[in-house]
């Protein structure tokens, strides 16, 4: 069974998608939305099921404010069933299935064993601009890594983080602070170049990439490692 994922939308349209992983993370996610709303921008939030369970109202605020939501797994761990478990939680509150899914750590192998991930209606989404904001403490470094990325163009998908998978509250709340400081300048910089900041549901995704098994299978659970080994990948 083949697995395809997308890194960008149509290059002939001046649309860019800002995406945010690992939330909801109140009040950090709310601050992201305040910044976007103040500038007439939409975002896409790839949420974790465990945080949706913990903060359902924070999750609902994302949808109520008109932003797009996607499935980013339940526990942010590479084992079978994580996307399906998350979808049960997210879809129950949203009242409909999600249409976009992002593999945690971009380890796509777990998608192969998820009916949710492999459904015809689901689009698996990577990104072509990855500023690694979670690893930077200097807001200017995040701004530069985003706006000066050579891949940035019409149709780009930018990967940022409004939360983290950490159970430690202090770490999870502190991690997005540099990104939050950088975000106004990122949005302003993109709009100054003529980009419209849209949700993934407003972007036509094109040129899908066919995934091939790779060494990232080493981070999987024993069940997934065995499955990848059976595919001829490098999980062992």
Helix/strand layout:
Elements (H helix, E strand, L loop, with lengths): L3 E2 L9 E9 L4 H11 L4 E5 L1 H6 L1 H9 L3 E4 L10 H13 L5 E2 L21 E2 L14 H9 L9 E5 L7 H6 L2 H16 L3 E2 L11 E2 L11 H10 L5
Parallel strand pairs: 2-3, 2-7, 2-8, 3-4, 5-6
Antiparallel strand pairs: 1-9
Helix pairs in contact: 1-7, 5-7
Can you describe this structure?
The chain is of the alpha/beta class and 236 residues long. It is built from eight helices and nine strands. The strands form three sheets. Strands 2, 3, 4, 7 and 8 form a five-stranded parallel beta sheet that branches. Helix 1 runs parallel beside helix 7 and helix 5 runs parallel beside helix 7. 45% of the residues are buried.
Q: Tell me what portion of residues adopts beta-strand conformation.
A: 5-15%
Major sheet characteristics: 5 strands, parallel
What do the pLDDT scores average to? 91
> Helical amount among residues, as a percent range?
25-40%
C-alpha end-to-end distance: 21 Å
Number of domain modules: 1
The CATH level-2 architecture is identified as: Alpha-Beta Barrel
CATH topology: TIM Barrel
Features:
five-stranded parallel beta sheet; TIM Barrel; disordered C terminus
In short:
The protein is of the alpha/beta class.
């Amino acid at each position: 069974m083949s697995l395809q994922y997308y890194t960008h939308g149509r290059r002939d349209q001046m649309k860019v998608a800002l995406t945010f992983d690992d939330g909801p993370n109140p009040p950090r996610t709310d601050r992201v939305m305040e910044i976007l709303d103040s500038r007439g921008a939409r975002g896409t939030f790839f949420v974790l099921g465990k945080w949706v369970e913990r903060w359902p109202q924070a999750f609902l605020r994302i949808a109520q404010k008109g932003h797009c939501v996607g499935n980013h797994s339940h526990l942010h761990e590479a084992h079978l069933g994580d996307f399906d478990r998350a979808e049960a939680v997210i879809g129950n509150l949203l009242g409909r299935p999600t249409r976009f899914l992002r593999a945690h750590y971009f380890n796509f192998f777990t998608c192969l064993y998820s009916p949710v991930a492999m459904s015809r209606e689901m689009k698996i989404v990577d990104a072509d601009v990855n500023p690694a904001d979670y690893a930077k403490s200097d807001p200017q470094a995040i701004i530069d890594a985003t706006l000066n990325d050579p891949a940035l163009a019409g149709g780009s998908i930018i990967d940022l983080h409004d939360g983290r998978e950490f159970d430690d509250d202090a770490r999870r709340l502190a991690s997005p602070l540099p990104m939050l400081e950088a975000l106004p300048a990122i949005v302003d910089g993109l709009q100054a170049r003529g980009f419209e900041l849209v949700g993934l549901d407003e972007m036509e995704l094109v040129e899908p990439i066919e995934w091939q098994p790779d060494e990232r299978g080493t981070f999987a659970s024993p069940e997934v490692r065995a499955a990848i080994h059976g595919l001829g990948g490098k999980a062992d």
